[in-house]
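pasting for ref
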Amino acid sequence: MESVNLTCHPDRTELIFKGVLDVSCARNVYQTLNEALIRALPLEIDTGGLERLDTAALQLLVAFGRIARERGLHLRWSSVGQTLRSSAELLGLAAALELPA
């Protein structure tokens, strides 16, 4: 099962995360996130389906968000799952991810 699915819309790129997001799938997730950046459209992220993620995955998401902002891409969290929120808060990365309240 893919950890992230990329859907291309004319006005945005949608990333939907599901299942497990950890170091074992980091390479594939990195490639998908890079594809989203290449499209250079606003980004919409849904992590409501994440069941588990590790520190490597959080680091990847922080780097992705930073790069997106550096490129001037608007990033919107359409759904922040409790798994992501809890892990980000535990590791002090909620602000770096710019998670909505």
